[in-house]
Amino acid sequence: MAEQVMLPDPAMPDPPSFDGWTCPLPLRDHPTVVMGHGGGGQMSAELIEHLFVPAFSNPLLAGLTDSAVVTLGGAHLAFSTDSFVVQPLFFPGGSIGDLAVNGTVNDLAMSGAQPAYLSCGFILEEGVELSVVGRIAKDLGTAAELAGVIVATGDTKVVDTGHGDGVYINTAGIGLVRDGVDIRPQRAAAGDVVIISGMIGVHGIAIMSVREGISFGTEVVSDCAPLNGLVAAMLDTTPDLHVLRDPTRGGVATSLNEIAKAAGVGIELTERNLPIPETVANACSFLGLDPLYVANEGKLLAIVARDQADELLATMRAHPLGADAAVIGECVPDHPGMVVTKTAFGATRVVDTPIGEQLPRIC
User: Fold this and answer.
1) Partners of 82 in the beta sheet?
2) How confident is the model at residue 25 (pLDDT cuts 50, 70, 90)?
3) Residue 154: which H helix or E strand, with range?
4) Cα(357)–Cα(43) distance, rounded to whole angstroms?
5) What's the pTM value of the predicted model, to 2 decimals?
6) DSSP symbol at 50
7) DSSP H or E segment with residue 193
8) Which residue of 6, 297, 305, 325 has the fewest CB atoms within a 10 Å radius of its CB?
9) Domains of the chain, start order
């Protein structure tokens, strides 16, 4: 009996081939999407680098920053988009509505832009209570007003019961970049100082405490806030900021690793200088987490020339959202592309990029 040969269906697209890939194993090991692909770690980077970048390849996308700086009609504009799927929808210190505004506002601000306009898309699951949607919409509108931005356009879609998770939101935004401002990860240079604007890990622990019903002896409140006002004050003092980044998914560790790799420098942190609140430290110890990998939603990392660091730090501490700002490290010529921490015992440990994410669905 002749062997039956199965011919390809011309109507079906060819499956993607992994044969020529050189990425690490986690992506190859998962032919389907897993939660780690959305965690902001190595798996997210591989997904973007090997699937999305080739499909959309262009010079503006090549920087892979949180917002692209484009020139339109002679003006320099920052343009960004973000989607929000946090659970629970409401948490101490905010809601998915607050996150939808502040997340995009902060991405624009990290390019040195003053955010101006947002779009807003709601994806609603059939059966979600209208009172919940109304409360989220009100939070979103209030957050936009506080950030000084206008929700200029929007869209609403409804999906069948079981095909969503209550409410998802996408926001896109544009903002005006000051003349002469050039903020991007590639500008980090050996000798630069690394500054954090405040306490680390608060948002992720706030989400986890509510989601898992864990009490840490006191309520942990998210740091969700718009950072454009703080950035404007920083630029007034130090127009030549080298790098800004809001350490959201993957936390401080992931953001600094991305910067180190982009700039080809090493980054050394001093453990005793890391501003980690006691509640976060205790919660991370209990849960087996590292605060450096826990998400933030109202903090920024700034990298600046050493001779400008003291003045910048004073400006940040004079602003309500930078009152706890601290110098936490420096850029060095050694171990380029790598982040390390000097411990209290004088040892050095590598702070690598996580494969997935410690706490999924935090934004």
Assistant:
1) 171
2) very low
3) strand 150-159
4) 9
5) 0.86
6) I
7) strand 193-196
8) 6
9) 66-177 (3.30.1330.10), 185-350 (3.90.650.10)
Collapsing DSSP states into helix, strand and coil, what is residue 254? Answer: helix
Place of tokens 């921490």: 341
pLDDT digits (tens, 9 = 90+) for 178-192: 999 999 999 999 999
Which run of H or E residues covers position 117? Answer: strand 113-125
Check the CA dihedral 16-17-21-27 and report its sign.
Answer: positive
CA 282 to chain centre: 24
Query: Beta partners for 49?
Result: none
User: 166 and 135 in contact (C-beta within 8 Å)?
Assistant: no
pLDDT at 43: 75
Write the burial class of residue 29 (CB in 10 Å: 0-12 exposed, 13-18 middle, 19+ buried).
exposed
SS percent in the chain: helix, strand, coil, step 5: 35, 25, 40
CA distance 61 to 185: 14
44, 82, 110, 149, 155 from 39: Cα distances, Å: 6, 14, 20, 28, 26
Residue 58 in this model has a pLDDT that exceeds 90: no
User: Lowest mean pLDDT: which of 68-77, 117-126, 211-220, 331-340?
Assistant: 211-220
* Rounded distance between C-alpha atoms, residue 63 and residue 60, angstroms: 7
